[in-house]
Design goal:
Length: 547
């Protein structure tokens, strides 16, 4: 008995010890887990971080932080790299050599600390945005039957300019002839771009928050006639431009490309009623991995076919969408390169030229055969906007892009029929003042090609522009500072192609107008209403894709 009891006691002591060892291992693991665990965020901090991320970070890193123009910054990735709150704080405060700007002037130290902790937690997945929700948001303010049958004013409306007043959530319509303000229209949060309908009568705007607005330029005072929200985040919109035999598609349809949820939406071009939503969630073209967030970047509308071309950014595909029959939609998925961002047409509007900016390439797709026909390695992070096309005295028709990561505008031959030997080869490199360029622009009737340096960290360079002669591209570009405040961004020509408008992007900004031939300043538009002017779009040039 005694021996048995002794045995039991020994066994239970062993069990207790084992339990204690197991417990201490578990506790140690728990402690280790606590040490590596994601830092906590109070509910109000989480809300603040979500807002900041959406406004300032998602554009480059993606809503799910899987990376595009900026690298992947998921909590998993940051843990793998052993990045803690201090290291992440340093990145956000100082920026990186890889192109991320310093945010120390934009966020307080407390906000940076919140962001550093937020990033170490899993990304919150924003809600989906089904068609029903879009339809609920849709407001037809002036039905087509009640709109003017002809322009209610005698102004040259094809030479109107639509000016994005970004932070005011407005679009100003200016008369390009008189330079007078014709109207200021409330459009909503952070309008990104405007595009014209095929006839030019309507401007469609798209905001970062996915809200689209349609402005009728024939009204005595142009105003919005419809609006709709199609997603939580968007950057692009365009219209159906194919005239066909009977002009059937003119102003008939519109398309919006969304960042979140990753989808595109087809709408009625007269009313903005949402008709169809198509997800772009898919697999990457090269590794065949599922990507939960391939965002829709640039959209261009074909003139010779009933087709939109959209960049499905993270997947490395360009999709050609035939809109003849939207109930039985035909989409050609063209393998290109990651990560497709911005771009436009060549001068003939046959070749699609898009930047795969993280691969330092322009991708060329033939819109007739719907196949990629070339890739042109141009330099560090090409960012063309729509790009620029002109006739080079030596190489014939060329197209060009500036760069985010280097001080050049690079031109390649874009006439495979007439100048096959130069087609899709770099033929010119024009030096600018520095990197951080966003846009290049010219016009078939213009003498010069213009380039900005909007994201350059240098105070003087970001406010400076350069112009070089189309006929003397080997001469040094002429460069000068446009303003002593804000950043200088984006160019647009008037319809005639003899003057260029550029924006000074500041709390109270300016529009500066230059003579294209002499490069002399013609006028400077100022006023309290000019709140953060960014993109500006001439009706004629936008409807005809003249750049
Ligand atoms: Fe843009 C075009 C996305 C930041 C002003 N911008 C585009 C296009 C895309 C895009 C996909 C092409 C649309 C098309 O052609 O259909 N832009 C993004 C971003 O993801 C990015 C890098 C970061 C973000 O968070 O949004 C970004 N863009 C900016 C700006 O900071 C600018 C200067 C001011 C703003 O609105 O925030 C800006 N983007 C513009 C403009 C165009 C544009 C003016 C149209 C150029 C044109 O000539 O057509």
């Amino acid at each position: 008995m005694l021996i048995q009891r002794l045995k039991q006691r020994v066994v239970s002591n062993i069990e207790k010890m084992t339990l204690a060892i197991i417990l201490s291992i578990v506790m140690a693991m728990g402690f280790a887990y606590k040490v590596n665990a994601s830092p906590d965020l109070a509910p109000e901090e989480l809300e603040k971080a979500k807002k900041i991320f959406f406004n300032r970070c998602a554009g480059c890193h993606g809503t799910l932080r899987k990376g595009a123009t900026g690298p992947e910054i998921t909590d998993k990735k940051l843990k793998e790299k052993n990045y803690d709150t201090n290291i992440i704080t340093a990145f956000i405060t100082n920026g990186t050599g890889g192109g991320m700007p310093s945010f120390s002037g934009d966020f307080s130290a407390e906000e940076i600390n919140i962001m550093a902790r937020f990033l170490q937690n899993p990304p919150p997945v924003p809600p989906e945005f089904p068609l029903e929700q879009m339809t609920e948001s849709w407001r037809l303010i002036v039905p087509p039957a009640q709109r003017p049958k002809k322009p209610e004013h005698s102004k040259n409306w094809q030479n109107f300019f639509g000016i994005v007043l970004r932070d005011a959530g407005k679009v100003a319509i200016l008369d390009g002839d008189s330079k007078e303000v014709v109207s200021i229209v409330d459009t909503g949060f952070a309008v990104h771009i405007l595009r014209s309908s095929a006839s030019g009568r309507y401007f469609y705007s798209i905001g970062r928050d996915g809200k689209a607005t349609m402005i009728d330029l024939w009204m005595a005072k142009p105003d919005k006639v419809a609006e709709v929200k199609t997603c939580n985040e968007a950057r692009s919109i365009d219209s159906s431009k194919y005239k066909g035999k009977k002009g059937d598609f003119v102003d008939k349809l519109a398309i919006i490309g969304c960042y979140w949820p990753p989808h595109f939406v087809i709408l009625d071009g007269q009313t903005l009623e949402p008709k169809k939503v198509v997800s772009t969630r898919s697999y990457t073209y090269d590794t065949g991995e599922y990507h939960p967030e391939p965002r829709v970047a640039a959209i261009i509308s074909a003139h010779h076919d009933p087709e939109w071309i959209i960049n499905v950014k993270e997947s490395g595909y360009i999709w050609a969408i035939d809109y003849t029959d939207i109930k039985n939609l035909k989409i050609t998925q063209i393998e290109t390169e990651r990560f497709m961002h911005d771009g436009g047409w060549d001068a003939t509007k046959r070749y699609i030229q898009m930047a795969a900016n993280m691969r330092n390439k322009m991708v060329i797709v033939d819109s007739v055969t719907k196949k990629q026909i070339a890739q042109v390695e141009t330099g560090n992070k090409p960012h063309p906007g729509r790009g620029a096309n002109w006739e080079d005295p030596e190489f014939g028709p060329v197209s060009a892009t500036p760069h985010l990561g280097e001080a050049t505008v690079v031109a390649w031959g874009s006439d495979p029929k007439g100048h096959a030997q130069h087609a899709w080869k770099v033929v010119r490199k024009v030096e600018t003042l520095g990197g951080g360029s966003l846009f290049v622009k010219t016009h078939p009737k213009a003498a010069h090609v213009w380039v900005d340096h909007t994201l350059n960290p240098d105070e003087n360079i970001k406010r400076s522009i350069c112009a070089f002669g189309k006929n003397s591209p080997s001469e040094k570009a002429k460069c000068w500072q446009v303003a002593d405040h804000g950043r200088v961004v984006h160019f647009e020509y008037n319809k005639a192609g003899d003057e260029v408008w550029v924006a000074v992007w500041d709390k109270v900004g300016e529009l500066v107008i230059y003579d294209d031939k002499t490069l002399k300043e013609k006028s400077r538009i100022k006023g309290d209403w000019l709140v953060t002017p960014t993109g500006h779009f001439n009706v004629y040039n936008t409807m005809t894709d003249t750049y």
